[in-house]
Design a protein that fits this description.
Strand order of the largest sheet: 3-2-1-4-5-11-10
CATH architecture of the largest domain: 3-Layer(aba) Sandwich
Number of helices: 7
Bound molecules: S-adenosylmethionine
CATH topology of the largest domain: Rossmann fold
Largest sheet: 7 strands, mixed
Number of strands: 11
Oligomer: single chain
Amino acid sequence: MKTYNKFVDYYDEIIRWSWYDINSEVEFLDEMIVKFSPLLTREGQGVGDILEFACWTGSIARELEKKWYNVFWVDLSEEMIKKANNKQKFIIWDMTSINLKLEYDIILCNYNSVCHLNSWEDWQKFFKNSYKHLKKWWIFIFDILTVFEFENMTKDFRWFFNVKGDTICLEMFSHPQPLPCKEGSKYYKWLIKMFINSWENKYNLVEEEIKEISFPVDEIKKELEKTWFKIKHLEDFHFGEVTGESERIYFVVEK
Ligand SMILES: C[S@@+](CC[C@H](N)C(=O)[O-])C[C@H]1O[C@@H](n2cnc3c(N)ncnc32)[C@H](O)[C@@H]1O
């Protein structure tokens, strides 16, 4: 079963435009960048380049570029580049190991992409790699879905969407059997069923699976500090203050 190969046809419409309003997310990211980059002024003076890891087809990058940012995109998936409209800026590589030999002003990894790294070792490598690609005094922003949120979603989660005549069903399950990850942690699996309307309302079923994991916020903070990042800010994307019941948390850290 392949991952994100067919769902790429529906992702932007379902996730980026109907599930979450992309504009509010871009506004939020812009606000975080301006607030927590000490060398940046509101008019954009002093800003250079953003390196966006796990950029998907560049939907966030394109919106950020409408402001005054210059964004370079990295994603592992070759399917993405077929959908991306700015292929010059797109690098297909693993964000845990890429070495661009350059430092950027902002590193961004948006929308629980870090949870797609299925081992704690990969999270550690990714934090180190982000540190390596960041200029001193500048910031790295990423977000996670929390263990609380994954546990909630696996209780009873099944969503249906109609996109261009096709029906898409998203379900989530948890797996106690760990991947090579930290002791006691689980992984969570999205099962995506795409009922594709082929001809005269005859449907073909295509399935894809996406595995994600998450870790307690305190462990992530400890690891970031071990990697020499200074923690500037944590924010619950929906409610502001981070609590034990936060679903999605943004981390803003400085080199
Ligand atoms: C949920 S999507 C996030 C998309 C985008 N950041 C957004 O805000 O909509 C997760 C992305 O992570 C990418 N990804 C997963 N593992 C990766 C890795 N090791 N290196 C680079 N990208 C990776 C996937 O290909 C996918 O595009």
